[in-house]
Amino acid sequence: MRKHAFVFLNAAIVIAAFIVFRAQAQERTEVVFPNIKGYKTLACDLHTHTVFSDGVVWPTVRVREAWRNGLDVLSITDHLEYLPHKDDVRPEFNRPYEIAKPEADNLHLMLIRGVEITRDEPHGHFNAIFLEDCNPINTPEQKDAVRLANEQGAFVFWNHPEWKRKDGKAWCGIQQEYHDLGWMHGLEVFNARSYYKNAHQWALDNDLTLMGTTDIHSPIDEAYDYARGEHRTMTLVFVEAETPEAVKEALFAKRTAVFANNTLVAREEWAAPLFEAAVKLQTTDISLKGKNAFFVPVHNHSSASYELEANGRVRGVSFPGALRLPAGKTVMMRLQGGGGTTSGQEKIVLPYRVKNILIAPDTYLEIAFELNVTFCE
Ligand SMILES: [Zn+2]
Ligand SMILES: [Zn+2]
Question: Pairing relation of β-strands 330-337 and 344-360?
Answer without folding.
Answer: unpaired
